[in-house]
Amino acid sequence: MKMSRVLIPVLAPLAAVVSAGASAGGSGYVPAPPPMKQNSMIFRVGASYITPRSDQISFVDDTFVFGDAFRARMDPDGEWGWYLSGEWRPLDHWGLELSYVNGDDHTGGNADGYFSFVDVYDRFNTNDGRFRDLGEFQSEMSAANVKWYPMRPDCMVQPYIGLGINYTDFSDESFTAIRRSDLRDVGLRSKLNMGYSWGYTWQAGVDFNFGHDSAWLVNLSAVYVDSETDMQFSVYDDGTNPDTAGTFESYSGDYNYNPWTFNIGVGYKFSF
């Protein structure tokens, strides 16, 4: 009886501490944070900074009339755009994502060499023998990715990596305004065309959750896209200069766009 009176006051607080630790779980939170349920969805939207690769292009004469060929460097400026994505997470550490990125106009490019139109060359050519800011274009990138999350689902910081396929389309292609003006001065017009491309893509990113019970998060990611397309431009008579009537030139080459995209945005997640 005396032993019971001694042990009860000692063991009661110890039992309470052990019970509290067990209810908190391995993470040490009280109560234990609920894990992300399977079959969860995450939607993200935000701003993207797109930086294309600088690439040397070998342009050749498509008409086989003049037989000209020259090297050109496309060095487009980086531009801001926006992105959105939807992701399904059927398992704790895996997700399937569809994403879309739309950027503003890229401008850049110069060329060594010459067109067979001497008067056009004289107007294009600068003191260092290069064509400056030859063209501009926009890009749209759609991708499907498989993503892996190494951390436990109850962690508030969720890094991930992803691998998938990408479709890139180009629009609003044209010579820059100053180059179009130079051509009009000699009675010529121009047209720039770019195709589309399929390639692989990979990414690395992290989600910062606002809290264990919050559906909102902040997303940071870096995405690389393998994208090669055909670039073709034409210079032709607009009918206003009789000295160049009937003259036509067309050149094409392969351009490696291969951009890096850096994203920052917000996300919303829910389970079903």
- Residues in helices, as a percent range: 10-25%
Low-confidence stretches: 1-30, 113-130
Average of pLDDT = 77
Counting DSSP E segments of at least 2 residues, the number of strands comes to 15
The helix/strand class is: mainly beta
Q: Order of helices and strands, N to C?
A: HEEEEEEEHEEHEEEEEE
Beta-strand share of residues: over 45%
Large-scale geometry: elongated
Gap between N and C termini, in Å? Answer: 57 Å
- What composes the largest sheet? 8 strands, antiparallel, barrel
Q: What is the CA-atom radius of gyration, in angstroms?
A: 30 Å
Strand order of the largest sheet: 1-4-5-8-9-11-12-15
Number of helices: 3
Provide the fold topology:
Elements: H1 2-24, E1 40-51, E2 55-61, E3 69-74, E4 79-91, E5 94-103, E6 106-108, E7 110-111, H2 118-124, E8 135-148, E9 157-175, H3 177-185, E10 188-194, E11 196-209, E12 216-225, E13 228-237, E14 248-256, E15 260-271
Antiparallel strand pairs: 1-4, 1-15, 2-3, 2-14, 3-7, 4-5, 5-8, 6-8, 8-9, 9-11, 10-13, 11-12, 12-15, 13-14
